[in-house]
Amino acid sequence: xxxxxxxxxxxLAELRALLPQAPVIYxxxxxxxxxxxxTEAEVAARVSGLLGRMAERYQPRLIxxxxxxxxxxxLGMVREVLETPIVGTVPAIKPAAAMTETGTIGLLGTEATxxxxxxxxxxxxxxxxxxxxxxxxxxxVALGEAKLRGDAVSVDAVANAAKGLVLQPGGENLDTVVxxxxxxxxxxxxLREAFGPGxxxxxxxxxxxxxxxxxxxxxxxxxxxxxxxxxTGVAEDFDRLAPAFARHGIERLVRF
Length: 256
Prior knowledge:
Blueprint (H helix, E strand, L loop, with lengths): L1 E2 L5 H10 L6 E4 L11 H19 L4 E2 L3 H14 L4 E2 L5 H7 L4 E6 L1 H4 L2 H10 L4 E6 L2 H10 L6 H12 L9 E4 L8 H8 L4 E3 L2 H11 L12 E4 L3 H5 L2 H5 L5 E4 L1
Helix pairs in contact: 1-10, 2-3, 8-9
């Protein structure tokens, strides 16, 4: 399970509920964080290069790119070069379009995600008759990372990072917001308070877990070693995340 940081833990939580017996290696490219402020070329090169080396070293039976930015930019490229089945993460525009009552949907993602043609295609396919407001809230990534490290994160800080969504023309009509970054569900309690009771939030973690489970249906699993996490970043900083990983059954953190 690959992410730029720890947002993929929101997907892992859903996967554990469906496939508790499946051994998992969590890969966090913390040295490359954040992806949302990088160019498409930078993200594509980094993700494809890292996943190629990780696939060679660990020989996984399936790879999940638990990152909207990496998926919307590099998913096709990675699938072309790796034979391993790959599940990506894309904004949950389809369920949001089915949920909205006002017809106005918000899309909170990174700056890199919200500008992708992939998002345009999802909008045209599933929300053509809706109004989709997009906002790149890169600062929410850092706030999600900080929260998992045990730092205090205020509702005001979250509201300030996300307010550009509702300040757009038509923002007052928002009733459904797509959390198009796996980090953002970590901040859902703060986002709910910031946006108020009239706004619902939707993200794709449960759907991604179901897709992984369907692809692995009928396969046998055996843990030969405990589940672990690898990072491209500084090991000492990664150690601050040990309690968060332990809650998801990962007790060992190592440097890649």
